């Protein structure tokens, strides 16, 4: 048993401070507002990096085109949706000396009220894990999802 002191029982904890920064907060708020708009597909897709990996329930997508197709599937049976984000648990796990763009990880939970095309309604609890990265173009930078996974409780 020597050398197995950690044995997987010592997790990594987030570095606290000003997490998440105000831009991350605004990004998350805007993302869920956009998610509820069926006419905002391209805006929703632009919330992800070009090589992002997205999992919604059992549906997966990697990269811009697959995310576009996933977004279309999200609206095949749903006529309207309204997200409520109850809590966001932010963390920064990256070593600041590692280089690369800044990242922030978040766990979220909430509920989404759905209205289906056949007239049914449902309130579905959900939880999500996301890794956000800051993409910089010129002098302007914006947060985007590099990874986003949602679990739905049905």
Summarize the structure.
With 154 residues, this protein is of the alpha+beta class. Helices cover 19% and strands 46% of the residues. The protein is globular, with a radius of gyration of 17 Å.
List the helices and strands and how they pair.
Layout: H1 22-35, H2 41-45, E1 48-56, E2 59-62, H3 64-74, E3 78-91, E4 103-116, E5 121-137, E6 140-152
Parallel strand pairs: 1-6
Antiparallel strand pairs: 1-2, 3-4, 4-5, 5-6
Give the N-terminus to C-terminus distance in angstroms: 42 Å
Number of domains: 1
* Strand line-up in the sheet with most strands: 2-1-6-5-4-3
**Named CATH architecture:** Roll
Summarize the main sheet.
6 strands, mixed
Q: Remind me, CATH topology?
A: Nuclear Transport Factor 2, Chain: A
Listing every helix as H and every strand as E from the N terminus to the C terminus, the arrangement reads HHEEHEEEE
Number of H/I helices: 3
Quaternary organisation: single chain
Level-1 CATH class name: Alpha Beta
Q: What portion of residues belong to β-strands?
A: over 45%
User: Which structural class do you get from the secondary structure elements?
Assistant: alpha+beta
Point out poorly predicted stretches. none
Number of E-type strands: 6
Helix content: 10-25%
What is the rounded Rg?
A: 17 Å
Q: What is the 3D shape?
A: globular
Mean pLDDT: 87
């Amino acid at each position: 048993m020597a050398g197995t002191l950690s044995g997987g029982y010592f997790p990594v904890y987030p570095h606290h401070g000003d997490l998440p920064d105000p831009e991350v907060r605004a990004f998350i708020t805007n993302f869920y507002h956009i998610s509820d708009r069926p006419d905002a597909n391209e805006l929703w897709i632009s919330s992800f990096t070009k090589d992002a990996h997205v999992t919604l329930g059992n549906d997966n997508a990697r990269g811009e085109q697959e995310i576009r197709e996933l977004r279309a599937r999200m609206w095949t049976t749903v006529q309207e949706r309204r997200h409520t984000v109850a809590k966001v648990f932010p963390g920064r796990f990256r070593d600041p000396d590692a280089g690369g763009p800044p990242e922030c990880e978040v766990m979220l939970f909430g509920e989404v009220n759905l209205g289906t095309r056949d007239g049914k309604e449902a309130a579905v609890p959900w939880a999500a894990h996301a890794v956000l990265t800051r993409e910089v173009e010129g002098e302007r930078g914006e947060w985007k999802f590099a990874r986003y996974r949602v679990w739905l409780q049905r």
